[in-house]
Design goal:
The protein has four helices and four strands. It is α+β, with helices and mostly antiparallel strands. It has a four-stranded antiparallel sheet with strand order 1-2-4-3. α2 crosses α3. The chain is globular and about 35 Å long.
Length: 88
Amino acid sequence: MSNKISSITDRLDNMSEKSLDQRLYNVLLNVAKDHGTKVSKGMELKFSLTHEELGFLASAHRVSITKAMKSLIDCGKIIKNGKVLILT
């Protein structure tokens, strides 16, 4: 029960973030915390999430998620290898 409350609290805190890039990164970190694996470069998500699914999680439109994802990849916070994401 406490894990569920903590997860909901994290999601609510994340929604208050003004920057979509940071909001998306926080969403991915939360998903990686629950379902990712630790690798030398960071946390790895071996399953794919569509931009539509990420938009639902981050409360944003798919097109905005595409732009934010590109920004996160360009600044090095995310490494994309095919469908695998590594959060540094």
